[in-house]
Amino acid sequence: MTQAKPKDRGLRARLGRATNDQARDTGMAMVLICLLLAYWGHHPHFLPLAIALLLLTMAWPKIFRPLAVLWFGLSHIMGNVVSKVFLTILFFGLVTPIGLLRRWLGKDSLQLRQWKKGSDSVLVEREGVFRPEDLVNPY
After folding, report:
1. d(CA 86, CA 79)
2. Which pLDDT score, from 0 to 100, does residue 91 have?
């Protein structure tokens, strides 16, 4: 008899629960934020809060679970959005201008114009004997 695998209930279900490690990491992130605000923000009243959060994280990390759900859920959503925005900017900012410039200069690396003119193949035939060393680094 095989054991049934639990179904993945999707993003909403995964964001609804946080592990103990995620709760502890969230507590440590809050400690780090308080320390950074105390040091660079010149707000020394954040130091006792950082110490209290550190002790709380060490003693009872499960208290940060609701915040961990929000923290990791937001990071997951931002990761998806930022990666798509970054790749879109990279494509339209770098790949598209290079393609347009190559088209404007008349480059045809894939030999599409030659292929469309006739029925011959545009593949380059290599002459010679292939040795095993040729296949080690084919690129």
Report:
1. 10
2. 96
